[in-house]
Predict the structure.
Amino acid sequence: MLVLPAPAKLNLFLYITGQRPDGYHNLQTLFQFLDYGDTLQFSEAPQGLVTLSPSIDGIAPEQNLIIKAARALQNYSDCYKGVHIQLTKRLPMGGGLGGGSSDAATTLVALNKLWQLNVSQTELANIGAPLGADVPVFIKGQAAFAEGTGDILTPVNLDEPWYLVLYPPISVATAAIFNDPELPRDSAVLSLEQRLALPWHNDCEALVKKRHPEVAKLLSWLLEYAPSRMTGTGACVFASFSCQKSAEHALANKPAGVQGFVAKGCNRSPLFAAQAS
């Protein structure tokens, strides 16, 4: 049996620099991990059998990224050992924290070890990329400046503050935001050094606030405690704090109906720290 975390990520900034002929978007974003997320437990199962519990409402098992990741690794490696996966879900769906992609990445890393496949990290990232644009950064496990569709990663070392992450009782569909004609797609392509020197911004935030007033209200509320931002395409918003106590104080005063948590920023993914322990 193997138990591993599937940590959340934050997009500390997100710029859309264009749309490609295939419909995908080019972007520049800065990823950092959190020491908070889902947990997956992997145990052996009969040959070829891949099962997941509990099921997730509204998602057929074979459409779940965890099952898709396991099947993709089976097909790539021509190994058809079985596995049962137990998921402890903490990250909200449609929150912009990368929960589904992180679950898929942890599944690939875990099964590579459990099935003794010795597939390289680069190969795992390539297997995971079609499952979700964020999967490769979770596979690589290092805070990164991402370009292209999110697949060109430059490792970075950032300050590791405490974060308060809040989410309203809604989910935001990533595809709906990226397909929205009002999404700005013309941010300049800048170097990492230029991006780090400028104020950080999320090109999706104004549109999400317009389409989902709950996000706008939560960003305004959090601004009373610290500069607030949205991660990914929402619905989660966040702010950084110099100490855990300040973040916990803000969390204790969160508006009714809002969920949230406090976590430490991590340049090295907790997934790899767990494997080393």
